[in-house]
Amino acid sequence: MITARHWIDALGLEAHVEGGYFRRTYQADHRPRTRTPGGDRYAVTSIHYLLTHWSPVGHWHLNRSDILHFHHHGEPITYHLLHPDGRHSTAVLGQDPDAGQLLTVAVPGGTWKASHLTAGDHALISEAVVPGFDYADLTLGRPHELVARFPEHAALIHRYCRPDRPDQPLPR
């Protein structure tokens, strides 16, 4: 049986600031950089990303780039999206289209995202980021800031947000 620990070891995954584990698998070194308001970025980057039963949550965060998520192995992941206009939507990334699961979930840049392992030991996915990911383009959610912006979603925000510790900076 393939387990979360197997994927961490086999793929050389490391703990991710959002929760779960990751490793960058690609960056478009052979293409010209893409100019963005935050600076020049790779045209595209990709990672492997793993949620586990001991690290089941991808905490609220916002990326400025568009991200495509692809399910590879394990259980489904439920995504919660808070759109710039305040709407909340969900999508389930998994292997069972008859149960409404999607093999690919697209999240537009500027959309707040949290995810959680729906059940089981793990879920292994990959992500393609366009323009490529840079930590300067990542905002980690703080409960008080997100609730001020989306008060109607306060319970959901608190459920998937890292604890708000103003005395401690968010990890990078």
From TrEMBL:
Listed InterPro entries: Cupin_DUF985 (IPR009327), RmlC-like_jellyroll (IPR014710), RmlC_Cupin_sf (IPR011051), YML079W-like (IPR039935)
Family annotation (Pfam families): Cupin_5
Domain DUF985: 6-140
Name of this chain's protein: Cupin
Species in which this protein is naturally found: Kitasatospora indigofera
